[in-house]
Amino acid sequence: MKKKLLSLLLFAVPVFTFAQEKGIDEKINDAFMPVATWWEGFILTTVPIGEYNVPFVVILLVLGATFFTIYFRVPAITRFSTAISTVRGKYVDIEKHGVDKLYNNDEALAVEDIQDTIRDESAHGEVSHFQALATAVSGTVGLGNIAGVAVAIALGGPGATFWMIICGLIGMSTKFVECTLGVKYRDVGPDGTIYGGPMYYLSKGLKERGLSNLGKVLGGLFAVLCVGASFGGGNAFQSNQATVQLVSLFGLEGGSSGFIIGIILAVLVGIVIIGGIKRIAKITEKIVPFMAGIYIVASLIIILSHASYIDDAFTLIIDGAFTPMAGLGGVIGVIIVGFQRAAFSNEAGAGSAAIAHSAVRTKYPASEGVVALLEPFIDTVVICTMTALVIIFFNIDGTNMQSVFQYGAAGDSSSSVLLNSDGSSIGGVDLTSMAFDAVIPGFSYILTIAIVLFAFSTMISWSYYGLQSWKYLFGRGKAADMLYKILFLIFVVVGAAATLDAVIKFSDAMILALVFPNMIGLLLLFPKVREEMKRYIRAITIKKEALEDGHVDVTEHM
């Protein structure tokens, strides 16, 4: 199978080379740009709030997250310790076998019996809590954390960081809801393969509510949008940005080198995605800690080297959140920038992460819901905040930023590009790179490695999201499966070698479009999440009471 895919990619070499020489990609781009611009404008339709035009999708995300936060009593705080315990495997016994069997029946507590049969009695699922979390995190942690934060601070000042953190905290509630539903309404194939995500809880969950037709429409719409998003924002855009960084850093020739990099990325991605979610999970559970570790360690070096400025930085963040800097345009402007960047970064409400979390091994859907809480926390509260501190330290005296642009610079907070007064552009990643290089000379090379790893992990995660949606639309046959994977690998090369900005713009907007069908489902099905949470907490309580009565903790023997 691998040889067939490699042969296909090699066959594509003369095709793409011809396309580049003749400028076909530019012609396609020019023809498709009006459609892409219309689609992006439609998805980002704005609502006037005072003197600002706020994308309706951002309002929907923030209001939905706020509602879930209040309804579930701030799970980011009240369920955080449960999330840590769950991902560490503290409750793996009841998640595999059910609390009634293990702790309400003395015979089921026989240690030797558990040791002999533990692996044969596992619940449905293909990956562990940590693997599911790693896969989902790898799909969101990326350029949004590197370039997006720089854009937010340049546009909104340090105060934008405060609102990014707030949005990340309330976004944890949305992840909790959608990932609990993802496990509850998943399908399990005859061979144990898991099929899950919003398309399933929209169709099956709304059918339970007597809204079968609405569920079918929303489920199908989500699947179509997710397939498009997987080809563009989750794939071509990632390979394009990774290629741009490599070409720029090492001074490579544009055209041919981009194609070669695309082929290499496609082969590496192909080797991983052929193995399905189990192989994807095994790779992401290694890559995510490694790439996040590199970035976090570098950030900590800079933060600790500026320890005396930490209190000053947080003062700027808090003061700037409520008393914006001159020229910024008001508190509402800072809030909008912070919320929008956070929403684009962690994708809470888009529903994509629920596809990865659905594959977890557990009998209690809410167990994965609480684990999903950690995703926006890692993505936005931790990594984005670290990036923000590095950039604020870089401009702590207000002079370094002025060499590039001042706070409140022209730009679009939905993109990763800023404009100088002369109209020239600078990428947010360049600003982040300058901030790191100011303390760690040569860090731009490390940052490039991090970007490539971020891009690679995002691509393999989104390949799974897209494939699950593809199967929902076209069936679960091997031919349909292979067709999707081939198309996905071709888009890896297209993103790296061509300049199809319109195609990427069009499909990238599909990630945000996922919010509309998904949030409708969440707002109709959230009472089910409350039922599942009560069931899981009751199971944990029964286990604790059983251990207090002297029963054996079977977790130690698993």
Automatic annotation (TrEMBL):
<comment type="similarity">
    <text>Belongs to the alanine or glycine:cation symporter (AGCS) (TC 2.A.25) family.</text>
</comment>
<feature type="transmembrane region" description="Helical">
    <location>
        <begin position="313"/>
        <end position="339"/>
    </location>
</feature>
<feature type="transmembrane region" description="Helical">
    <location>
        <begin position="287"/>
        <end position="307"/>
    </location>
</feature>
<dbReference type="GO" id="GO:0005283">
    <property type="term" value="F:amino acid:sodium symporter activity"/>
</dbReference>
<feature type="transmembrane region" description="Helical">
    <location>
        <begin position="486"/>
        <end position="504"/>
    </location>
</feature>
<keyword id="KW-0472">Membrane</keyword>
<dbReference type="Pfam" id="PF01235">
    <property type="entry name" value="Na_Ala_symp"/>
</dbReference>
<feature type="transmembrane region" description="Helical">
    <location>
        <begin position="443"/>
        <end position="465"/>
    </location>
</feature>
<feature type="transmembrane region" description="Helical">
    <location>
        <begin position="160"/>
        <end position="177"/>
    </location>
</feature>
<protein>
    <submittedName>
        <fullName>Alanine glycine permease</fullName>
    </submittedName>
</protein>
<feature type="transmembrane region" description="Helical">
    <location>
        <begin position="132"/>
        <end position="154"/>
    </location>
</feature>
<keyword id="KW-0812">Transmembrane</keyword>
<feature type="transmembrane region" description="Helical">
    <location>
        <begin position="510"/>
        <end position="526"/>
    </location>
</feature>
<keyword id="KW-1133">Transmembrane helix</keyword>
<keyword id="KW-0732">Signal</keyword>
<dbReference type="GO" id="GO:0005886">
    <property type="term" value="C:plasma membrane"/>
</dbReference>
<feature type="signal peptide">
    <location>
        <begin position="1"/>
        <end position="19"/>
    </location>
</feature>
<keyword id="KW-0813">Transport</keyword>
<feature type="transmembrane region" description="Helical">
    <location>
        <begin position="217"/>
        <end position="237"/>
    </location>
</feature>
<feature type="transmembrane region" description="Helical">
    <location>
        <begin position="257"/>
        <end position="275"/>
    </location>
</feature>
<dbReference type="InterPro" id="IPR001463">
    <property type="entry name" value="Na/Ala_symport"/>
</dbReference>
<feature type="transmembrane region" description="Helical">
    <location>
        <begin position="370"/>
        <end position="394"/>
    </location>
</feature>
<keyword id="KW-0769">Symport</keyword>
<keyword id="KW-1003">Cell membrane</keyword>
<feature type="transmembrane region" description="Helical">
    <location>
        <begin position="52"/>
        <end position="72"/>
    </location>
</feature>
